[in-house]
Amino acid sequence: MDISVVVPLYNEAESLPELEAWIRRVMEENNFTYEILFINDGSTDESWKVIEKLSESNPNVKGVSFRRNYGKSPALNTGFQRTRGNVVITMDADLQDSPDEIPELYRMITEEGYDLVSGYKKKRYDPLSKTIPTKLFNATARKVSGIKNLHDFNCGLKAYRSAVVKHIEVYGDMHRYIPYLAKNAGFGKIGEKVVQHRARKYGKTKFGLDRFVNGYLDLLTLWFTGKFGAKPMHFFGLMGSLMFFLGFIAVIAVGAIKLYNMYHGNHYILVTDSPYFYISLVLMILGSQLFLAGFVGELVVRNSPGRNQYEIEQELNIKQPIN
Predict the structure, then answer these.
(1) d(CA 206, CA 11)
(2) Which residues partner with 40 through β-bridges?
(3) Integer Cα distance of 274 and 281 in angstroms
(4) Has domain 3-228 been given CATH number 3.40.1190.10?
(5) Minimum mean pLDDT among 23-27, 140-144, 151-155, 268-272: which range?
(6) Contact 171/73 with Cβ under 8 angstroms?
(7) Which residues pair with 119 in a beta bridge?
(8) Beta strand 158-161 with 116-120: parallel, antiparallel or unpaired?
(9) Pairwise pLDDT comparison (34 vs 202), residue with the higher score
(10) What integer pLDDT is reported at residue 1 of this predicted model?
(11) For residues 321 and 42, what is the distance between their CA atoms, to the nearest angstrom?
């Protein structure tokens, strides 16, 4: 199969028939073999009934329905697990993404060798209250992820080689950072294509401004797990050792100053009357706790069932040892 189109949705009953007809027309005009996977994320409207009707009229339409609303990331992850196409396309169900972009996205994956191609909505039909935070968000994501060529990490219109979606796990709200997840999984050839952004035709947006706050927290999580997830002691142990060392040196300094003043007959105060003594103790306690956190993290990683499961792309002349 050429293409799998994954469409997560929540209360988009009005737009689904038009979207399905549009995708079907594009696929037939380009002679693609395809499937459309509608992932109904606990909609409270008639979305699932519409999907059932579309499936009856088009055997290429498939659907999954959640019992309740879990979010876009679980919907995408569920769709990724069920795809069969060589190229996977994701798009939103609100008709703001144009299926006419699919042939070029497919070409970039199959002919230019990209692992992932992300859409870039250069001209947006959104209010300033959304576009300005989006620009700041994307600038931060480029800096932290090291993917300098992407301008729109959160664009719902993306294309992937099948291997990419089979080797990443999208959870929480990490759909914003799928390019970063792909990069951490070893898929480094990531491209971008300017795509058309259409004004919303039906309904209203399902996302609020809180997504920007949560987005930054998720980005920090990805950065930390990508850099220190396999070796937590390298972070906690270093920080803890440094804080303990500074606290220990400070305690010695406080004691040495008192002994010096005593020896030379100068005025001195008790060690316990010095605020620096308590600051030193706090540093030593925090340092010990951070070090222990790193140690516990190493125990968790050591007992993880997937600690030695690596993604191997190719093997050549590997022979099993003879007992």
Answers:
(1) 9
(2) 9, 65
(3) 12
(4) no
(5) 268-272
(6) yes
(7) 193
(8) antiparallel
(9) 34
(10) 92
(11) 51
Rounded to whole angstroms, the Cα distance separating 67 from 186 reads 34
Instruction: Find the helix packing angle between 128-145 and 210-228, rounded to 10°.
Output: 0
pLDDT given for residue 208 in this prediction: 54
**Is residue 181 within 8 Å of residue 168, measured between CB atoms?**
yes
* pLDDT of the residue at 238: 86
Q: Where are the domains of the chain?
A: 3-228, 233-302
pLDDT on residue 132:
74
CB atoms inside a 10 Å sphere around CB 3 = 26
Run of H or E including 304: none
Over the stretch 211-259, which tens digit does the pLDDT of each residue have? Answer: 667 777 777 777 777 777 667 888 888 889 999 999 999 989 988 888 8
3-state secondary structure of 160: strand
* 291 pLDDT above the threshold of 80: yes
Task: Give the residues across from 4 on adjacent strands.
Answer: 35, 88
Q: In what order do the strands lie in the sheet with 190-194?
A: 61-65, 34-40, 3-9, 87-90, 158-161, 116-120, 190-194
HEC secondary structure over 174-203: HHHHHHHHHHHCCCCCEEEEECCECCCCCC
Would you tell me how many other CB atoms lie within 10 Å of the CB of residue 280? Answer: 22
pLDDT given for residue 121 in this prediction = 85
Question: Using 50, 70 and 90 to split pLDDT, how confident is the model at 209?
Answer: low
Q: If you write DSSP's letter for every residue of 31-90 in order, what string do you get?
A: T--EEEEEEE-S-SSSHHHHHHHHHHH-TTEEEEE-SS---HHHHHHHHHHH--SSEEEE
Query: DSSP assignment of 248-290, as one string?
Result: HHHHHHHHHHHHHHHHTT-----GGG-HHHHHHHHHHHHHHHH
